[in-house]
């Protein structure tokens, strides 16, 4: 028998750092607030994800570096 979703969330939450636990709590409060808000006043995805933008490590805009775009149909690749 599989654990309930609530149990799975609690088990996963216990493995997180206190800082990450706070982020989860903030996320839950935001979800709850969206449920209580009229549908016309809900937050956009950009607003909800604002604190996470720029947190991941990745190369810059791949479209501006021709080395990354080789083989994707540009004239120079023929």
Description:
There is one protein chain. By secondary structure, the protein is mainly α. The protein has one domain. 49% of the residues lie in helices and 0% in strands. The chain has 4 helices and no strands. The longest helix is centred in the middle third of the chain and has 19 residues. 0% of the residues are buried. The mean pLDDT is 77.
Using brief descriptors, characterize the structure shown.
78 residues; mainly alpha; 4 helices
Topology:
Blueprint: H1 5-14, H2 18-36, H3 45-49, H4 66-69
How are helices and strands ordered from N to C? HHHH
How many angstroms does the end-to-end distance come to? 57 Å
Count of DSSP H/I helices: 4
Q: How much helicity do the residues have?
A: 40-55%
Q: Tell me the structural class.
A: mainly alpha
What's the short story on this structure?
By secondary structure, the protein is mostly helical. The protein has helices spanning 5-14, 18-36, 45-49, 66-69.
């Amino acid at each position: 028998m599989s654990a309930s979703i609530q149990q799975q969330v609690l088990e996963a939450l216990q493995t997180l750092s206190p800082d990450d636990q706070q982020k989860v709590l903030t996320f839950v409060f935001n979800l709850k607030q969206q449920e209580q808000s009229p549908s016309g006043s809900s937050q956009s995805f950009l607003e909800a994800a604002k604190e996470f933008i720029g947190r991941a490590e990745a190369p810059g805009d791949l479209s501006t570096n021709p080395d990354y775009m080789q083989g994707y149909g540009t004239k120079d690749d023929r």
